[in-house]
Specification:
The longest helix is centred in the first third of the chain and has 13 residues, at 20-32. The chain folds into two domains: 2-86, Winged helix-like DNA-binding domain superfamily/Winged helix DNA-binding domain (Arc Repressor Mutant, subunit A, Orthogonal Bundle); 94-300, Jelly Rolls, CATH 2.60.120. It is built from four helices and 17 strands. The protein is globular and about 70 Å long. Helix 3 (37-44) crosses helix 4. The strands form three sheets. Strands 6, 7, 8, 9, 10, 11, 12, 13, 14, 15, 16 and 17 form a twelve-stranded antiparallel sheet that branches. Strands 2-4-3 form a three-stranded antiparallel sheet. Strands 1-5 form a two-stranded parallel sheet. It has helices at 11-16, 20-32, 37-44, 48-60, and strands at 2-4, 34-36, 64-71, 74-81, 86-88, 98-103, 110-120, 145-157, 167-177, 189-195, 198-205, 230-237, 240-243, 246-249, 264-270, 280-283, 294-300. It is mainly β and 301 residues long. Helices cover 13% and strands 38% of the residues.
Length: 301
């Protein structure tokens, strides 16, 4: 899903959808799942050059992905839908009795991670890959992507509650994926979540994606490395703990015994004893498909 919360950020998508031909291409890929350039050219009665131009526009905004297939008579470019839906929020959803903060992915306060691993800003790698020591580099606060195979990383959440106010729900939104050596779209990883060291549950990430370039991923980034993740919404309230509306545990907000003086910390981990040790990648504002860090919303009463 492509989620647009700023109309200016959505301009590439809007421009791509302004063409009748490109709308027809999306319709054909929805019907046939995938088509090569020649097939699109024949069905739309256009030259290969014209099809290439339209397909490039759709790829740039993240609506389709292009893969190369080697055959006896050369290579073919295969087109398929990359996203099957997009959501445009023009008016920001205001929730009464709440506050929101965005935490940069480099603003962690604790970690214990193991290779393969690495960290990078929008402009460069920080130090060497597969060397956990660079997670302590001062430049880490500017990072926009980080990854590791197992271990944990922890972030502090500001607590702005006042005396007499009580937590009713904490929401955490983030773009994440597995971490495979290189990349692999089928690479399950059990990513666990804890709040103040209370285990909330786990979600199994399907894979580590490099089948197409992330919409925000910078041009210098290596094409066979992690390109984008999946946007996940973790939340805990009086009914339990959920990811994208699916309950992952019976742990409720009251089980954590929070008050206006409480420190808050969210831990993301891939434990050594979990079934699928497939790593974790966290995408920030300048990598992946979503222009955000780790977004927090606290609702209180």
């Amino acid at each position: 899903m492509i989620h647009i919360t700023d109309l200016n950020e959505g301009l590439p998508l809007f421009k791509a959808l302004s063409s009748d031909i490109r709308i027809k291409i999306i319709g054909l890929l929805s019907e046939y799942t995938q088509l090569n350039m020649n097939e699109l050219s024949e069905k739309l009665e256009l030259s290969n050059g014209a099809i290439t131009m339209h397909v490039k526009k759709l790829e740039e905004c993240g609506l389709i992905k292009i893969s190369t297939l080697t055959a006896k008579h050369g290579t073919q470019k295969i087109c398929a839908l990359h996203e099957d839906k997009f959501v445009i929020d023009i008016v920001k959803d205001e929730v009464p009795n709440s506050y929101e903060v965005e935490i940069g992915i480099g603003h962690y306060n604790s970690y214990d991670i193991y290779p393969t691993c690495g960290i990078a800003t929008k402009d460069k790698l920080i130090g060497e890959v597969d060397n956990p020591s660079y997670f302590a580099d001062p430049e880490r606060i500017n990072s926009d992507i980080l990854w590791f195979t197992k271990g944990f990383i922890e972030y502090r959440i500001p607590n702005y509650l006042k005396p007499g106010q009580n937590f009713s729900e904490i929401q955490i939104s983030m773009e994440i994926s597995s971490e495979a050596p290189g990349n692999c779209s089928i690479w399950p990883s059990d990513i666990h979540f804890s709040l103040n060291d209370m285990h909330l549950g786990a979600w199994t990430s399907p894979g580590d994606y490099a089948d197409s370039k992330g919409i925000l991923t910078p041009s210098w980034w290596f094409p066979n490395w992690n390109q984008y993740g999946l946007l996940k919404l973790l939340y805990i309230n009086k009914y339990g703990t959920f990811i994208d509306g699916l309950k992952i545990s019976d742990v409720t907000i009251s089980d954590i015994n929070l008050n206006y003086k409480s420190d808050l910390s969210i831990k993301l981990s891939v434990p050594e004893d979990t079934k699928n040790i497939g790593g974790l990648t966290i995408f920030g504002k300048n990598f992946g498909n979503y222009n955000q860090g780790i977004n927090i919303r606290v609702i209180y009463e």
